[in-house]
């Protein structure tokens, strides 16, 4: 990250702090390819892709230094099963069966990693067929389980990562994953958790992505309002089942090569295929550019729950609380935790603006070090975006019906502190 770029970007960040989210329009089928590391700054990514919510692909040059690209891959570009077994053989990993549909996803089971690798070897030997089906190792929290391993370094473009900053702080979860699967494994049609951004880097192998900008998914719903499991299925041509399918645009298609990173914008639905035996690193993340989209998603999810159990509103004394509980079970977060999420993000930035960064913290791989790397103006941008969403949350009628006495500080006090920190920083 070149700090000089941010040092002279005051007007740039102030403009975007006060602007609304840019439109989702994208030239049909066009995805930019970012080739040269030395010519592409964080400011470029922020301006051209984060704010306008456009996808892009980073060349393999951006992952050349990763340990996983050196050590996990054989000389001919295949997964190095022997090395992986040596390092992770005793791990227990989540594995999905791509040949089985359960509700609107693939059923998962927990398997020993060495059993999965033995299955994969046999699957290749049997010409990619097995009585067990096509098994795909997905959503493995490898970084959390093996923090000492030299796997990868998060590129600076994705370092403003509020989801992992928050879940690391409460030591409960994270949104950093490893995927491993044979040729033919795939992920059904979906949008990412909380309508977050995601980035996906191929350590080896190739993927095909089918992307739909926000709003296009509405044309793909069936007459009951359900999204398709597979957007390539012939059944979507049946107008009696999918009445608006013919109004949809063709997907944006990306073929991702080994070493390349795909950036998937917030709220873009997608379907992904492994064209070869493939290993990838994936993160989901939210930041000041798309936190308002996350908040809109949560409001939509709560409204859907309220519609679903509306008949119980009168006889149930704690109906509003039950709606929050159901929403959390479905999405992983409720309104009170969303407040705490905003609070942690805000307080980390307020601390740096008010106290600076000591040498010990700046030398470590910590949220505060990441904030310092991106610069004080980025911290101010983050706080301004937090103020907007926190103001909306505080005024929300469903939020006000909850018992908020456990929230510390109270929303009003946190908002006051936020605004004061911004004013002081901009003096």
UniProtKB/TrEMBL annotation:
The UniProt entry's GO CC annotations, sorted and at most eight, read:
cytoplasm; nucleus
Tell me its cofactors.
Fe(2+)
Q: Which SUPFAM superfamilies match?
A: Clavaminate synthase-like (SSF51197)
What Pfam families does the record point to?
Answer: Cupin_8
Q: Does the keyword Metal-binding apply?
A: yes
Instruction: Report the InterPro entries cross-referenced here.
Output: Cupin_8 (IPR041667), JmjC_dom (IPR003347), JMJD6_ArgDemeth/LysHydrox (IPR050910)
GO MF, one term, reads: sequence-specific DNA binding
Q: Which CDD domains match?
A: cupin_RmlC-like
Which reaction(s) does the protein catalyse, per the Swiss-Prot or TrEMBL entry? Answer: L-lysyl-[protein] + 2-oxoglutarate + O2 = 4-hydroxy-L-lysyl-[protein] + succinate + CO2
Q: Say which domain of life the source belongs to.
A: Eukaryota
Picking any one GO biological process from the record gives: positive regulation of translational termination
Where is each JmjC domain found?
A: 143-302
Q: This chain belongs to which protein, by name?
A: 2-oxoglutarate and iron-dependent oxygenase JMJD4
Supply the source organism for this entry: Asarcornis scutulata
């Amino acid at each position: 990250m070149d700090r000089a770029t941010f040092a002279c970007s005051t007007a740039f960040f102030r403009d975007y702090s006060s602007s609304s989210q840019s439109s989702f329009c994208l030239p049909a089928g066009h995805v930019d390819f970012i080739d040269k590391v030395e010519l592409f700054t964080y400011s470029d990514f922020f301006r051209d892709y984060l704010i306008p919510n456009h996808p892009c692909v980073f060349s393999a040059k951006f992952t050349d230094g990763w340990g996983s690209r050196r050590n996990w891959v054989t000389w001919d570009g295949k997964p190095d099963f022997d090395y992986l077994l040596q390092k992770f053989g005793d791990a227990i990993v989540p594995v999905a069966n791509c040949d089985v549909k359960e509700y609107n996803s693939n059923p998962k089971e927990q398997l020993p990693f060495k059993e999965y690798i033995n299955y994969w070897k046999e699957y290749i030997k049997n010409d990619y067929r097995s009585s067990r089906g096509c098994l795909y190792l997905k959503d493995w929290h490898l970084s959390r389980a093996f923090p000492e391993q030299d796997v990868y370094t998060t590129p600076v473009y994705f370092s403003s990562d509020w989801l992992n900053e928050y879940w690391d702080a409460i030591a409960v979860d994270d949104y950093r994953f490893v995927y491993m699967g044979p040729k033919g494994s795939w992920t059904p049609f979906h949008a990412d958790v909380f309508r977050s951004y995601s980035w996906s880097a191929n350590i080896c192998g190739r993927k095909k992505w089918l992307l739909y900008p926000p709003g296009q998914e509405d044309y793909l719903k069936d007459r009951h309002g359900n999204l398709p499991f597979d957007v390539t299925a012939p059944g979507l041509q049946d107008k009696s089942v999918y009445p608006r399918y013919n109004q949809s645009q063709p997907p944006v298609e990306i073929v991702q090569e080994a070493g390349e990173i795909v950036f998937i914008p917030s709220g873009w639905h997608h379907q992904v295929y492994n064209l070869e035996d493939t290993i990838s690193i994936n993160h989901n993340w939210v930041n000041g550019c798309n936190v308002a989209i996350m908040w809109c998603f949560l409001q939509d999810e709560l409204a859907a729950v309220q519609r679903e159990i509306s008949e119980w509103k009168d006889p149930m004394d704690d109906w509003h609380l039950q709606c929050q509980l159901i929403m959390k079970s479905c999405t992983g977060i409720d309104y009170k935790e969303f407040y705490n999420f905003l609070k942690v993000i805000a307080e980390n930035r307020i601390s740096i603006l008010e106290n600076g960064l000591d040498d010990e913290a700046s030398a470590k791989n910590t949220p505060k070090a990441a904030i310092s790397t991106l610069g004080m103006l980025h911290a101010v941008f983050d706080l301004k975006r937090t103020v907007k969403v926190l103001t909306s949350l505080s005024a929300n009628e469903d939020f006000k019906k909850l018992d908020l006495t456990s929230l510390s500080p109270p929303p009003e006090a946190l908002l006051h502190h936020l605004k004061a920190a911004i004013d002081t920083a901009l003096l």
